[in-house]
Amino acid sequence: MLIFDADDTLWENNVIFERVIDEFLEWMTHPGLDRAEVRAVLDGIEAANAPKLGYGSKVFLHSLGECVAQLRGRAATAEESARIAGWAAAFAGDRVELIPGVAETLAELARRHDLLLLTKGDTEEQERKVAASGLTRHFRGVHIVAEKNIATYEQLKRAYDLVPDSTWMIGNSPKSDILPARSAGLNAVFIPHEHTWVLEHSELDPADDKVLRLPAFGDLLHHF
To answer: DSSP letters of 126-161?
Structure first.
């Protein structure tokens, strides 16, 4: 069984957030506060909000509003709130950009193995992206969860009667894809992405021989 992450493993995601953040930093930066300081404040707000509010563009835009309030020392004005709301358009639409090699690699892997999709975030938003990807037919099951933690992987093990030694979690996030899957006894494949969200970064044990590290998605065909 091969279990796949979605955002930034199958299709581009965080790069869209980073483009908005670049515009936000340009807007909020002033002589007394540089970009790095603004970004540090935003990262702290997102880190606090994620466990309480979850993931996705709605929570992200909410965090931008909190960041404005914290930096300005007052609630965002109607004009500022409207500017933030305008960035919602960046996340709308019914298209996703598949990462190179994903479509053909998944098609071939689905001929050889059972595949699952496991993604976290806002249910409606993730359902839209999954549908837009055109990849649903390859998966035995699609699971959208609030958080990817050890309990999530343990639940999947029970639901599909997974054999840990022959089950692999494949993704770009050490925090959500690799470490909790390994803690649940599964194997893992780490495919790094240059735009992985900073809050998903974490250190991996270089001596863990149950974690396969691959430079590109298409390299999965050489191992599975």
So the answer is: HHHHHHHHT-GGG-SEEEEES--SHHHHHHHHHHHT
pLDDT tens for 190-203 read 999 999 999 899 99
Which value, in Å, is the radius of gyration of the alpha carbons in the chain?
A: 19
Tokens of 207: 């001596």
User: From its phi and psi, is residue 41 left (phi > 0), alpha (psi between -120 and 50) or beta?
Assistant: alpha
DSSP conformation class of 76: P
**Nearest Cα to 170, choosing from 129, 120, 217, 111?**
217
Residues of the chain under the 70 pLDDT cut: none
Q: Kindly list the distances between the CA atom of residue 115 and the CA atoms of 5, 120, 138, 169, 181, in Å, as whole numbers in the listed order.
A: 11, 17, 7, 10, 16
